[in-house]
Amino acid sequence: MSTQDIVDTSGTAPVCPGRRTFLKGSVATVAAPMILAPRKSEAQAVVLPPSPPVVPWAIELPPEANLLQPVAALDPPPLAWANVAAGECGRDDHPRFGQLYVNPVFYELRARENPDWVFNPAYPPQPVWGWLGSDGQVTAPGPTIFARYGRPVIARIYNELPQDHIGFGSPEISTHLHNAHNPSESDGFPGDFFSPLKAGPNLTVPGQWRDHFWPNVYAGIEQFGGIGDPREALGTCFYHDHNLDFTAPNVLKGQIGFYLIYDWLDSGNERDNSRSALRLPSPPYDYPILLQDMRFDVNGMQSYDQLSPEGILGDMVAVNGKIQPVLRVARRKYRLRVVNGGPSRFYFLHIVNAASVQQPFIRIATDGNLLPRPLHNHRKIEIAPAERADIVIDFSVYPIGTELYLIDRQIQLDTRGPDGVSLAGRQLLKIIVDREPPEADVSRVPLLLRGLPTISAAELASAPVRSFAFDRTNGQWSINNQLFDVENPSVVVQKGSYEIWELVNPSGGWHHPIHIHLEEGRLLSMVNIETGVQIPIPPENQGRRDVYVLPPNTSMRIFVRFRDWQGKYVMHCHNLVHEDHAMMLRFDITA
Amino acid sequence: MDTDDKMFTRRTLLAGFGVAALGALAFQRSMLDREPVPQRAPGTGRLPNPTVFTHEGKAVKFYDDLIRDKVVAISMTYAQCTATCPATMGNLIRVQDMLGERIGRDVFMYSITLFPEVDTPRVLKQYAEKFGVKPGWTFLTGAPSDIESLRFALGFYDLDPAVDAIRTQHANMIRIGNAAYDRWTMSPGLVRPELIVSTINHVDRSVVHTAHIPATA
Ligand SMILES: [Cu+2]
Fold it and tell me: How far apart are CA B149 and CA B77, in angstroms?
């Protein structure tokens, strides 16, 4: 790591909340009635029966990412303002449209029910809320978008979900492009949900569709000019629903898909002649893998406990919408992009051979971004909900016919967080090395990937520190004892400013993967708040982040900038059950 | 377990969630003396349907008479408050006012006592009158084991028994749902009342604009 890549924390002026804040009990007493203390509770939550067994390795994943093709034009053409007359919902205007809406790429994303989705042959075909692909199929997860920095995208998102739907899930959507540096009205703000019948609290009128303006600019367009600071590039993004109060069920039903962004460095072409190109394994050998924990009832139908305050921990893990599928690969290098799509399960992943021996790979990215340098000989991936990990694994070292398994060794008993690591683990995906590549593998993993943006000692010293305690107040989630208000910001920051945010988890039993919209930040330090002892940050988590996993009784300090866009954004727990129980905070960016 | 349990969706299939399965699993987490054992039916399909009593003294079936096909906002509360009453109640009074004519017609509000041992219908009636509760908002009590079953079924509980035992904690959530569509969510009880109305509007299919728009008269 070069010196300019290193965050110098020596000049920091730490401002810590009082110890009292940390130690405050999570159970606040409220006006107690004047009767005897209640007797012990006699009731208990009934443990659901486990999902019925599945047939392993009976279903194959497509050999390459299911690409969404752009369309030549949108009818009617996109406008900066909401085209309400033509059926668009009543959103705010796209900012910088005159400046950045140049040479756009158009996509149509249609949220639709597929009545006959098969998670596994042991379960009956059943409805999911996926997305219509270019092949006419509705899949969950939806088709993958390959985007490029400097090529703005207009995604026209149609809500064609059944509005008379009965059961878990609510048929309004507000599609968030997770991790991307997007203007507020296109960010998928939770209160911007829409359907033909309904307008969320932050919209003026309902509609059939909404244009999302995803300009594919790096953060820092005002600071650096052009399309921003390339060191802020993001690669592995995903789109998912953010419907207020209904995100977990809607994402579980399939409102999720991949959005991968390339640029001149990570160009998506391993045969790129440009000297600047990294030439990492590229499509079709660049393959995204989405993990979602799901629960099925005794009839094999997907279920979700809408009435539980803690949600429901899936005991099945869908890999790209299939349970225990097979992926056939060629004998060569692959870039696998592993995304934890939640809602609540943490993973401790390995790739093992038939003898359960852990296989090495190269870790190249965390969350949305490439690491400064590849991390060789990694053998595990730990990811909380919304975290991502890109790895490069070389299948050429295996003979044809080799079978490998993606396994998860995390022990997790409920939605509160991981409870340990098992010895054996369970198999999520079988990988079969089944063919020679048609062409020689010219991809590589260079010594340097993408450098980190600089944070100067002066910036660290001058950054105001804001503290956020993620806690429970009177039996409800709270942030600094405040409840979520979708209509009013809890925090207002000035555009172009930078701050140190201190994220504190004083409540005993919960892990909270905290996600901040708009920009990635940098994790500066992490402390056990009971002992005051610094917690070491593993190298794969030392770069830029958009998810900050707070284990119980920890505090972390992050440096984050707020550039380029004004308006409303959110910070929230990405355990989607916590998010749906209002563990969220609105922050606004002002001029 | 309550043999009166009713399906609350037509989609949901009940085959496997039989009495035996529930019974066998129930004691896994239970280290408590229990007689009778109120059961929480899994949220995959059923709410209990016990007989409960309104603050007007009427015996009603919880699911059949109060929930089925309705848009509902359900809170838990207690009437034994002389100095300070649950703050959520003050909020719900304002929700009642904001909902105006929709109360009792499109939206039904229920407040179930957390202390059925002492909150008789008569006590609840006095309490409701003190707050100026109007028709369409009903206070409920019943046999303690039935109320306990309802509390769990509706999600007013904490997994930690020590936290769960602080019953007054459960007075800070509002369970909001549209039973006809089996669509359920919640609101913290102490947010601005406009936000509670907005959450009700989210599940009420007849409402187009989710935000609460104050009447301008
Ligand atoms: Cu959380």
Answer: 15
